[in-house]
Amino acid sequence: MNRQLFTKKWSLIFIGSIFIGLLIFFISAKSSSSEPVERSELTPTLFVHGYKGGPRSFQSMMDRMENLQWGKKHMTIYVSASGMVSIQGNFSNTPRPFVQVLFENNRASIQDQTYWLQQVMKKLRTEHKIQQVNLVGHSMGGLASAGYLMSESDLPAPKVEKLAVIASPFNGIKKEGYFASNYGEATTDLQPGSEALRQMEENKENFPPEIEVLAIAGVINGTEPEEDHWDGLVHSSSVSRLEKIVPFGQYKEELIFNNLATHSGLHELAEVDRMLAVFLWDETDEDNLNSFDEHL
C-alpha cells in the first residue's frame, strides 16, 4: 500500500511539473511576442469625421479593421467647442494604433478645425512623443486635414506620412436645397467657390512635398454621364479637385461604383477598408485579405 501511495505521489509531482513547465513556456512565448514597440516607431492613424459627424462616423470601420487585425483603437481625442483638447486612452505595443478625433462643434469652419488639429498634433508630439501619423478624413474631415497640412504653425507636431480623404468636396457641394436645410459656419465654407476653398488652392505651395495622398469618391449613378457622377451629395469631380492642390506624383484616386457608395455610406463599405489598408499599411497578408473578401 505504501508503495502504491509513493508511486501515486511521484506521478502527481511529475504531472504537476509538466503543467508548470508548459505554463511557463506559454507565458514566456506570449511575452516575447508582445515586445513593446518603440514609441519612435509608432505611426498612429487619426480618423477625422465630417460635417455633423460624431463618435459613430468611423467606429464601425475601425471595428472591422480591428477584427481583421489591421490595427487597434487606442485613443479618442475630444476637442470642445472652445478648442480645449482632452485625450482618453493611451498607446501600448500595437504597431498600428487608431485614434478617433471628435469635434464638439461638428459644424465649425475649416479654419477652426484646422486650428484644432494643430492643438491635437501638439499634444500627440509633446505628451505622447509621437513622431509620425497618418490622417484619414471623411467629407469635411478631409478638407480640415488638407487645410492642416497647408497651415503655418510653429507648434511641435508629428510628421504626417499619408493622407486619405473619403468623399471630401474640395470644389464644394452643389446639391440643390442642401444649404437651405443645414446651418453652421461650415455651410459657408462648403459652398462652391467659397473663400475657404479658394484659399486652399491658393496655398497649395504649402502642401508638403513628401506626403502620399489617396482620394476616394463614391458613384451611385454610374450609368449617367461622367460629369454627373456623385455619391448623392458630393460629385466625384469635387473630390478630384484635390489633385490641383497636391504636388505632382503624390496623388492617387479611387472611384467606387456601387449604389451603396453614398456620401454617408461610403466609409461603411469593406471595399473602402481594403483600399485604406493597402494604401496606409501596404496590407498584403493573404489570410487577412481572404477574410476581407468574405465581408464583400
Automatic annotation (TrEMBL):
Keywords: Hydrolase, Membrane, Transmembrane, Transmembrane helix. Pfam families: DUF915. The keyword RNA-binding does not apply. InterPro entries: AB_hydrolase_fold (IPR029058), DUF915_hydro-like (IPR010315). One of its GO terms (molecular function) is hydrolase activity. The chain crosses the membrane at residues 12-29. SUPFAM superfamilies: alpha/beta-Hydrolases. This is Alpha/beta hydrolase.
